[in-house]
Amino acid sequence: MKRILFVMLSAVLLASCVMPVTQQPAPITPTEPEKKPEPPVEPSEKVPQPPKIQSLNWNNIVQPLVDQMLSANGLELGKVLLVDSVKNNTNGSLRTLQATDAITDAISNKQIFQIVPKSRVHVARQALGLSSEDSLGLRSKSVGLARYLNADYILYSFVSNNHGQRNLEMQLMLVKTGEILWSGRSDVN
Known about the structure:
Largest sheet: 6 strands, mixed
Order of helices and strands: HHEEHEHHEEE
CATH topology of the domain at 58-187: Rossmann fold
Strand content: 15-25%
Helix content: 25-40%
CATH architecture of the domain at 58-187: 3-Layer(aba) Sandwich
Shape: elongated
CATH class of the domain at 58-187: Alpha Beta
């Protein structure tokens, strides 16, 4: 046993001894960099312009739908209507606030409903914890907001993209039951 211990101790002692190895530093020889002629500068390609947001005449798109909606059966005159903001379900850029304003103006000009003012909608969104950027993508959120505002009807609108053709779809819903009273669609060009 003593022999094994002596051999192990000797091995550890010998392993810890390191002989210093001195190495000469590599010689440094300065050189001049080669001067290569620069390639001629060719005119660069033009940077493509970002896509422009298409300007649409929302009044012309919205007016026929509003006329159809107002001629629907079962509507009571003078009731409170919440015009929900238009949702963009396409992969492009649309000015949906302009679309919402066009819908509101077209309905206001007919003087059939009492439209909930934007200021009340903004205050109600804050009270319900909804940000102003929340487009209320779910109908249930829209109906909840309408109930909070004591609206009788809600107009839910969205723009969709079907096989390259954009459509504006509008649905008039009864707030009490969530029933869709009228639905219409128009091309967005």
